């Protein structure tokens, strides 16, 4: 049986596979999670992604690992229970990119009575396993908060923050260390069944290649239905509904590490989250979307909606001029024909198409960041009849790359002792982005000068080279918005300098 070494240092891609057990199409969280789980079970895996890892939906989330408090109102008890249990698992697996966050839920009597909020939070505390996160408590505000003076009561409960794009990258890195062939900027252009296999054509800048796969997973997110029909030649077994969710980023609205979950008159909720130290992240919206998922952009109406909800709750007024960045993503949800996009289920469905003697196609519909690991386990169990030699589930017991440390504080102290010349902000960023992986580009350095050129905000030449060589980063956007969030801090001139540097490297 293939032995799992989840924190093995990757040394580039393995030799490209022309025959594999499993071809995964899509490099978002579900595709990367399935590829990682499968590689650790001893399967030969190829993952192809037409753009970058987490280029779309998986990097456009609210950055939360959470049970989904509002899903209780829609009786999504199975999903909430599974997600609540996963919070603890993922905290242990990735303490560098996932950490606890306390949420303040203000009480507004005309929306939901206090007893209802208290009952919902009691259920939230006890529906899933909670061993490290503190329980809910009631708050009497007495005007001593950033909220409007007419908000007198609130509740405080626990969920978790996650760097969503890095969660995808770390899963892909672990899959590669376990033998998976990760192909980015590689588009699956056609596929057909032949002699018990899928024959798949993949196009990239280097030309076309063919992969022969025993099974195919369609994890293309909002492109899932289109890929099923146009590439794989099958009829989708599930209807999909594409829902746009938008976020805005503004200068920090308040002091403190807490987040806020705000109720609105339309029964939706809006999060206000501490973001990258100096900012607040506000979202999200629910808007039916039609069009190319890669072209989604926040609308002026969505931005006005988010601002209005915040202004109804906070003392500090917020205007559109305060927005420093905005982003949107398309969530691929199961079409349950509910007229309200916010009420459409966030649960996932896995379907397998292929009769006796045929190579299977597994389609992934729906899903959310928090449950990606359980989705991957369920997907592989569905494929076990065609891949009987695979090993057992393993991902719940092993850290993601860089996550083999006790706590962020302990790792920060260790790095401070080993590299006392590091700036505090820079060191904490390394802890919360890379964990122990940062030692790969810090090794042998005795001063800032040894890290090479600083492109701005502590982004050094060594870090950029590491991201290119080990994390598939090839563009300014890859580096500044998905591998790091330094796009918020680098000026347009600094970003241009980085682009010219990358261009010289080729």
From TrEMBL:
Catalytic function, reaction form: a quinone + sn-glycerol 3-phosphate = dihydroxyacetone phosphate + a quinol
Domain FAD dependent oxidoreductase span(s) in chain numbering: 21-372
Keyword line: FAD, Flavoprotein, Oxidoreductase
GO MF, any single term: glycerol-3-phosphate dehydrogenase (quinone) activity
EC number of the protein: 1.1.5.3
Cofactor(s) required, per the database record: FAD
Family: Belongs to the FAD-dependent glycerol-3-phosphate dehydrogenase family.
Protein name as it appears in the record: Glycerol-3-phosphate dehydrogenase
Entries under SUPFAM superfamilies matching the protein: FAD/NAD(P)-binding domain
InterPro entries, A to Z: DAO_C (IPR031656), DAO_C_sf (IPR038299), FAD-dep_OxRdtase (IPR006076), FAD/NAD-bd_sf (IPR036188), G3P_DH_FAD-dep (IPR000447)
């Amino acid at each position: 049986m293939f032995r799992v070494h989840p924190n093995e240092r990757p040394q580039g891609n393995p030799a490209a596979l022309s025959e594999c057990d499993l071809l995964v199409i899509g490099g978002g969280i579900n595709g990367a999670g399935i590829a990682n789980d499968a590689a650790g079970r001893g399967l030969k895996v190829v993952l192809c992604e037409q753009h970058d890892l987490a280029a779309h939906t998986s990097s456009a989330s609210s950055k939360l690992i959470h049970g989904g408090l509002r899903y209780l109102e829609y009786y999504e008890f199975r999903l909430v229970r599974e997600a609540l249990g996963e919070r603890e698992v993922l905290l242990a697996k990735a303490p560098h990119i996932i950490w606890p966050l306390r949420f303040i839920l203000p009480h507004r009597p005309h929306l939901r009575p206090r007893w209802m909020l208290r009952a919902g939070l009691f259920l939230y505390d006890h529906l899933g396993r909670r061993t490290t996160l503190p329980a809910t408590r009631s708050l009497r505000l007495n005007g001593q908060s950033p909220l409007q003076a007419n908000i007198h009561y609130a509740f405080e409960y626990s969920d978790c923050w996650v760097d969503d794009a890095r969660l995808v990258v770390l899963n892909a890195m672990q899959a590669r260390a376990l033998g998976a062939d990760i192909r980015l900027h590689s588009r699956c252009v056609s596929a057909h069944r032949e002699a018990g296999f899928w024959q798949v054509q993949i196009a990239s800048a280097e030309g076309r290649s063919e992969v022969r796969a025993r099974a195919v997973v369609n994890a293309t997110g909002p492109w899932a239905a289109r890929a099923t029909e146009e590439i794989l030649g099958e009829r989708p077994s599930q209807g999909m509904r594409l829902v746009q969710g938008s976020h805005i980023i503004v200068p920090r609205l308040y002091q403190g590490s807490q987040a806020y979950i705000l109720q609105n008159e339309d029964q939706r909720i809006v999060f206000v989250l501490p973001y990258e130290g100096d900012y607040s992240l506000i979202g999200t919206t629910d808007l039916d979307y039609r069009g190319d998922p890669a072209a989604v952009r926040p609308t002026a109406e969505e931005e006005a909606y988010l601002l209005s909800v915040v202004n109804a709750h906070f003392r500090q007024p917020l205007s559109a001029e305060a927005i420093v960045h905005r982003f949107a993503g398309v969530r691929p949800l199961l079409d349950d024909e509910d007229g309200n996009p916010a009420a459409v289920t966030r649960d996932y469905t896995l379907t397998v198409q292929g009769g006796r003697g045929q190579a299977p196609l597994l389609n992934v519909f729906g899903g959310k960041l928090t449950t990606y690991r359980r989705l991957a386990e369920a997907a592989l169990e569905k494929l076990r009849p065609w891949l009987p030699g695979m090993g057992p589930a393993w991902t719940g017991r092993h850290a993601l790359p860089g996550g083999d440390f006790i706590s962020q504080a302990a790792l920060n102290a260790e790095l401070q002792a080993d590299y006392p010349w590091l700036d505090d902000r820079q060191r904490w960023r390394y802890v919360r982005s890379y964990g122990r992986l940062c030692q790969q580009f810090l090794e042998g350095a005795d001063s800032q000068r040894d890290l090479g050129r600083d492109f701005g905000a502590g982004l050094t030449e060594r870090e950029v080279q590491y991201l290119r060589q080990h994390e598939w980063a090839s563009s300014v956007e890859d580096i500044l918005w998905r591998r790091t969030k330094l796009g918020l801090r680098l000026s347009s001139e600094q970003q241009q300098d980085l682009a010219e540097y990358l261009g010289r490297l080729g």
